[in-house]
């Protein structure tokens, strides 16, 4: 009987711990605490970072992070796995590379950041093999604003950019990214 009671208590504690980490933080709320959130509007539609609840005793990778480029000490790479973007035929990540020397609270980087938002440009069938071709959005202008910058701790701010996606079927899509917001841990 005592064993059964101990198992019930253990199960209840595990359930509480499991559900304690099940809330997704809103990426459109301005925070400066390193919550690893990122979101933006693409032509007026919300795009958010992909999220999975953190379960006890499991390994998981960061879906949103900022890390100093190990090949170049002067660049910070911010990366986020996104919910698939229908307008860009399944695009599912964004990368923003910024020069560390230009990062400080209140800084504005006009057309300085290297932004990658890849998309599926098209595919070709060759027998039983399908070749998929991805392209990066052709960025025409960009702006990144820094709210908080503590090297090795946290980086937060806003971003917006415009660009064009050119698909192999001859269609083009103009993309306007607005209200971009990020709050990430800065890893060295």
Q: Characterize the largest beta sheet: strand count, sense, and whether it forms a barrel.
A: 10 strands, mixed
Question: What number of structural domains do the residues give?
Answer: 1
Mean pLDDT: 85
Percent helix range: 10-25%
Q: List the total number of helices.
A: 1
Report Rg: 20 Å
Q: Which stretches are poorly predicted, pLDDT < 50 over at least 5 residues?
A: 15-21
Shape: globular
Annotation, overall tally of beta strands: 12
Structural class: mainly beta
> In percent terms, what proportion of residues is strand?
over 45%
SSE topology string: HEEEEEEEEEEEE
Query: Kindly, what is the distance between the CA atoms of the first and last residues, rounded to a whole number of angstroms?
Result: 52 Å
Provide a descriptive summary of the structure in words.
This protein has one domain. It is globular. Helix content is 10%, strand content 53%. The protein is mainly beta. It has one helix at residues 2-20; strands at 37-42, 45-48, 64-68, 75-85, 91-99, 108-110, 114-116, 118-126, 129-136, 138-150, 154-166, 172-187. It contains one helix and twelve strands. The strands form two sheets. Strands 1, 2, 3, 4, 5, 6, 7, 10, 11 and 12 form a ten-stranded mixed sheet that branches. The chain has a two-stranded antiparallel ribbon with strand order 8-9.
């Amino acid at each position: 009987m005592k064993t059964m009671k101990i198992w019930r208590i253990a199960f209840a504690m595990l359930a509480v711990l499991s559900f304690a980490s099940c809330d997704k933080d809103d990426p459109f709320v301005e925070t400066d605490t390193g919550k690893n959130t990122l979101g933006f509007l693409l032509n007026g539609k919300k795009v958010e970072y992909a999220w999975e609840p953190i379960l006890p005793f499991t390994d998981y990778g960061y879906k949103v992070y900022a890390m100093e480029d190990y090949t170049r000490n002067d660049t910070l790479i911010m990366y986020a796995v996104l919910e698939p973007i229908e307008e860009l035929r399944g695009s599912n990540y964004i990368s923003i590379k910024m020069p560390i020397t230009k990062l400080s609270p209140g800084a504005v980087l006009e057309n300085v950041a290297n932004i990658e938002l890849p998309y599926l440009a098209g595919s070709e069938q060759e027998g039983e093999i399908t070749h998929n071709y991805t392209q990066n959005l052709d960025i025409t202008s960009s702006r990144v604003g820094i709210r908080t910058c503590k090297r090795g701790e946290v980086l937060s701010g806003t971003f917006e950019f415009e660009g064009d996606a050119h698909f192999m079927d001859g269609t083009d899509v103009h993309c306007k990214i607005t209200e971009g917001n990020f709050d990430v841990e800065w890893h060295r």
